[in-house]
């Protein structure tokens, strides 16, 4: 099943809220804070929601592995914020693990971190990671 594409911005949150609906209030608050930060950093983000998977991704376009730069997955006590090319991003604060997943082709250096509160999301180092992820995709795709 294809994801639900949102190009209308943060004001359209129906699909996002549906994907997060099974989560606790605390987890939804963290997910909303991440979403708000992503849109603050890059207002033109294309959001894609996979309600069945309960995941949401953001990018300079809708394509998961080529245009998207970040995604969230809610869990019982935290939200995972992942970066498709996290291993290539500057991370002086060491928020991301040094090793992570790769796509079958080996083309991606995926990294993720767990965020348990809106205060975790407010860290300036996290904002810097999102800024770097957006810039990496814009540069790589010349957009």
Tally of DSSP helical segments: 4
N- to C-terminal distance: 28 Å
- How many structural domains? 1
The side-by-side strand order for the widest beta sheet comes to: 1-2-3-4-5-6
Number of strands: 6
Largest sheet features: 6 strands, antiparallel
Helix content: 25-40%
Strand fraction: 15-25%
Helices and strands, in order, run as EHHEEEEEHH
Characterise this structure:
By secondary structure, this protein is α+β, with helices and mostly antiparallel strands. The protein has one domain. Helix content is 31%, strand content 21%. Strands 1-2-3-4-5-6 form a six-stranded antiparallel β-sheet. A hairpin with a 4-residue loop joins strand 4 and strand 5. The protein starts with a strand and ends with a helix.
What structural keywords apply?
single chain, 143 residues, six-stranded antiparallel beta sheet, 6 strands, alpha+beta
Outline the secondary-structure elements.
Layout: E1 4-6, H1 14-20, H2 25-41, E2 46-50, E3 55-59, E4 68-74, E5 79-83, E6 111-115, H3 118-121, H4 124-140
Antiparallel strand pairs: 1-2, 2-3, 3-4, 4-5, 5-6
Short overview:
The protein is an alpha+beta fold and 143 residues long. It has helices at residues 14-20, 25-41, 118-121, 124-140; strands at residues 4-6, 46-50, 55-59, 68-74, 79-83, 111-115.
